[in-house]
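Notes from the 1:1 (GR / supervisor)

We went over the backlog. Supervisor wanted to see one worked example end to end before approving the batch request, so GR pasted a single chain during the call. The sequence is below; no edits were made to it. Supervisor asked that the structure be written out right there so they could see what the output format looks like.
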Amino acid sequence: MCAYILVAEDDPKQAELVRRYLRREEHSVRVVADGRSAVDEVRRDRPDLLVLDVMMPELDGLDVCRVLRREYDLPVLMVTARAGADDKLLGFDLGADDYLTKPYDPRELMARVRSLLRRSQRAPGPAAAPPLRVGNLTVDALRHEVRVGGRAVACTPAEFRILSTLMAAPGQVFSRRRLLENAYGLDGYITERTIDVHVMNLRKKVEQDPRRPAYLRTVYGVGYKIVDGRHTGD
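Structure output shown during the call:
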């Protein structure tokens, strides 16, 4: 699975190490050393995946993620020395698909890169299901589109998978663990709390009032379900 991967890392030694490992797997790699260059490069020649350091000059990785998520749904692997749970959740909140803490084993980096590329490049077959609809909410897997009424909604790959899972079975309750497995596979390093962050972000995007969700409903002590939008609740 060869891909074009952009690495945004201001430490030359770390950047070269990542570049070498990616090249061993025959990926095409470009390295930039600051956040503004990362944004410019994505806009100029969209990569298949972005490996994004948080602490960078010009524009830090969090701001880069915030800017790019308004425009693209490319997979983002965020890399940082910040190991706190709040830092990881902030990264996911801004749209990162995965989060790796420094120092790390380059082999683990490569495993996560492979996992993200597999998920992002998984194409629907010729017998792909028709768009899913619940109330005014539509999810189209073929076009990778989410719409509320006629309004298009930009979702990250993980958000799209979570919403698609819920939309495929309206009214059915899904545990956080099951949603986590559908969104990320069996990657044990991502916690169930990540699902709460993604659902919170989805509510901001698809609900008229995120504090009184009409679609994405919480089933306390169990998980989440999606309903037809005619009733509101928590």
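Supervisor's comment: The first helix runs from residue 12 to 24.
Batch request approved.
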